[in-house]
TrEMBL record, chain A:
Pfam families: Glu_synthase (PF01645). Keywords: Oxidoreductase. The keyword Membrane does not apply. Residues 80-331 form the Glutamate synthase domain. Signal peptide: none annotated. This is Glutamate synthase large subunit-like protein. InterPro entries: Aldolase_TIM, GltB, GltB_archl_type, Glu_synthdom. One of its GO terms (biological process) is glutamate biosynthetic process. One of its GO terms (molecular function) is glutamate synthase activity. CDD domains: GltS_FMN. Belongs to the glutamate synthase family. The keyword Kinase does not apply. The gene is glxD. It comes from Pseudooceanicola nanhaiensis. It comes from the Bacteria.
Automatic annotation (TrEMBL), chain B:
It comes from the Bacteria. Gene3D superfamilies: Glutamate synthase, alpha subunit, C-terminal domain. It comes from Pseudooceanicola nanhaiensis. GO terms for molecular function: oxidoreductase activity. InterPro entries: Glu_synth_asu_C_sf, Glu_synth_lsu_3. This is Protein glxC.
Length: 441, 227
């Protein structure tokens, strides 16, 4: 036996085993990888920021005695009936079709119990979500699947979707296995075909047209409903400014960690900016227009904890929105289904083939047997609990910073752990009073 | 006859009055004077009333219409009858881009020409154009029929689903997955009904029919060049 010492097998940092597995998959199938969820790569995020807490110059509030408000009003600029949320955390748009009816019901139940809103998605409004959502935001998407004036009027707010963080500039797709008879009927499509959602609206291009579109929607709904405009994290300064100029009541800004039901992995991982990088330019756009706080800013994309909530608000957001985290609260990727995840070639925590409709947790599926696994009442309660924890955590931090309301958090309460995060969030690098670009680029 | 003069009345009061009409209203005749290209005229209606707009309109006239019969004596700006659910919209002049976009039902008649993307994403609406239509008309059209009595521009019916396209004149080019199809008796009958409803007396036999080849209904790498 040759006992000459050998170097350990060494993987390339460029051609990692994961990269090589994708090359082999691509070579075998000839099609790009499609998956759900948001960016999985490591990007500067809220974890790279810290709160400073109170000190001699600022004193804290007592955690169990002194109030820390959490309510927020969305849509107060022009709408007669803005949404009054008990917590600054909303549920992001997710379609019936990508999600089961039970999952949509659970989202509505949980959001309503928590005193916040949920949002439709591509494919129209279902009775499950309208019936169980005290406050429901109705999305106007490029596909216009299921769009109709009756649902527009029975919505509590309207969200014009220009883009989303997972794929700014991209449309959507729902593969044939999820186009059941009900889904096909709602979308006016043949059953079982691969359904494409357009990337551009069919009846307008550009901000001047969008201003007129907003006028039309307000006229149809008697100027009652708040109009949101949702943008992906591409050019947050200009997109926010243009949305506000077009007359939006609320701008929803979704960074690249924001999830999607299904799109190309290359799109998710390589297009768009991290959420952290988007907030300050969007806030600055509103400030430059004198509209910060008058036009509310809702930030989404990678919100997981109360610390994330507090950090987004401190950077200038009025509220945050969660999607993927809400699905996890319902039961998505739960280890209890590990055996079945393994049978699908994955593992709990990594399952992202949401487009295939074989979700063991019964959430991202239209398979009746799988969907029946999700109890909407129990799942709704889990979501309520999770939203309560997010709120309590954010309040804990806010009180420690001496704030009597979550919206009183400010950039001066933060520092950054890395140069990148300092530059993106425009808060000082920890231990310094400096960030890259401070004083002008 | 109820009259609203947009030279003196504002758009909100006009639309509020029209939207307030119930299914059995006695106020079935409405006239809008001096539209002067205003946007969002007569949007979101939901009653079987007749609205005549004397002049030309801006964007989204008759948007999301249900039941109402709306007649524009001039031309219409972009997005006329967008997302219409039912009812009838007639434009005596020309229509700008996106006429009938994503409409779910009802009948849109454009007696003149329609610009690009006429019938884009249509979901059950029927559209009859007396003249020509511009490029990319019926893009991603899902259901309903588009009748073009004149010529069609480039890329007609690109990425078409199940909508039916009838063209009497020339077609500059067909879009991805759009092909000419045989005109059968029931197609001629449908076309005859639509032409009659639009007040046109063309011979259905003088039209050609186009529809989806259904080759792009399921993604396949060998079709990648078509996307």
């Amino acid at each position: 036996m040759d006992d000459t010492p050998r170097t350990l097998p060494r993987y390339s940092a460029t051609l990692t085993p994961e990269v090589m597995s994708e090359i082999r998959r691509a070579a075998a199938t000839g099609i790009y990888d499609i998956r759900g969820g948001g960016a999985k790569r490591r990007v500067p995020h809220f974890d790279d920021l810290l709160f400073l807490g109170a000190s001699i110059s600022r004193y804290p509030l007592e955690g169990y005695r002194e109030a820390c408000g959490t309510g927020v009003v969305l849509g107060s600029r022009f709408a007669k009936t803005p949404l009054e949320l008990k917590i600054p955390i909303t549920i992001a748009g997710m379609s019936f079709g990508s999600l089961s009816g039970q999952a949509k019901e659970a989202l509505g139940r949980g959001a309503t119990l928590a005193g916040t809103s949920t949002t439709t998605g591509d494919g129209g409004m279902t009775e499950e979500e309208r019936g169980h959502s005290a406050m429901l935001v109705y999305q106007l998407l490029p596909s216009r699947y299921g769009m109709n004036p009756d649902d527009l009027r029975r919505a509590d707010a309207i969200e014009i979707v220009v883009g989303q963080g997972a794929k700014p500039g991209g449309g959507g797709m729902l593969l044939g296995q999820k186009i059941t008879e009900r889904v096909a009927g709602m979308r006016d499509l043949p059953q079982g075909i691969d359904q494409r959602s357009a990337c551009r609206h069919p009846d307008w291009t550009g901000p001047d047209d969008m201003e007129i579109k907003i006028l039309e929607l307000r006229e149809i709904t008697g100027w009652e409903k708040p109009i949101y405009v949702k943008i992906g994290g591409a050019r947050p300064y200009y997109d926010t400014a243009l949305a506000a100029k077009a007359g939006a009541d609320v701008v929803v800004l979704d960074g690249m960690q924001g999830g999607t039901a299904a799109t190309q992995d290359v799109f998710i991982e390589h297009v768009g900016q991290p959420t952290l990088a988007c907030i300050r330019p969007a806030v600055r756009a509103l400030q430059d227009l004198g509209l910060h706080r008058e036009v509310q800013l809702v930030v989404s994309g990678g919100i997981r904890t109360g610390a994330d909530v507090a950090k987004a608000l401190a950077l200038g957001a009025d509220a945050v929105s969660i999607g993927t985290a809400a699905l996890v609260a319902l039961g998505d990727n739960d280890p209890r289904w590990e055996e079945e995840y393994r049978a699908l070639g994955t593992t709990a925590g990594a399952y992202d083939d949401w487009h295939e409709g074989r979700d063991p947790a019964g959430i991202t599926t239209q398979n009746e047997a799988l969907a029946a696994r999700l109890d909407p009442v129990a799942a709704g309660r889990r979501l309520q609990n999770y939203l309560a924890v997010l709120t309590l955590e954010a309040q804990t931090i806010a009180r420690a910073c001496g704030k009597s309301h979550l919206l009183n958090l400010e950039p001066e309460d933060l520092c950054a752990l890395t140069m990148e995060a300092a530059a993106m969030a425009q808060v000082p690098l920890a231990g310094t009073d400096w960030w890259p670009g401070k004083g002008g680029m | 006859m109820q009259r609203h003069d947009l030279a003196t009345d504002d758009l909100r009061s006009l639309n509020a009055a029209l939207q307030a009409q119930a299914a059995h209203t006695n106020q079935t005749e409405w006239e809008v004077l001096n539209p002067r290209g205003a946007h969002a005229i007569a949007v979101g209606l939901d009653a079987p009333i007749d609205v005549t707009v004397n002049g030309s309109t801006g964007y989204y006239c008759a948007g999301m219409n249900k039941q109402a019969r709306i007649h524009v004596t001039g031309s219409a700006g972009p997005g006329v009858a967008e997302n219409m659910m039912s009812g009838t919209v007639v434009i005596d002049g020309d229509a700008s881009q996106y006429a009938g976009a994503s409409g779910h039902g009802g009948l849109l008649v454009v007696r003149g020409n329609a610009a690009s993307r006429c019938g884009i994403s249509m979901k059950g609406i029927d559209i009859v154009v007396g003249g020509n239509v511009g490029h990319m008309s019926a893009f991603m059209a899902q259901k309903g029929s588009l009748v073009v009595c004149g010529d069609a521009g480039e890329a007609l019916g690109d990425s078409l689903y199940e909508a039916r396209l009838y063209v009497r004149g020339s077609v500059k080019s067909l879009g991805a997955d759009c092909v000419e199809k045989e005109m059968r008796d029931h197609h001629r009958a449908e076309l005859g009904r639509l032409l009659a409803a639009a007040g046109l007396d063309h011979d259905p036999g003088s039209f050609r029919r186009y529809g989806s080849a259904r080759q792009l209904y399921h993604f396949h790498v060998d079709n990648a060049g078509a996307y």
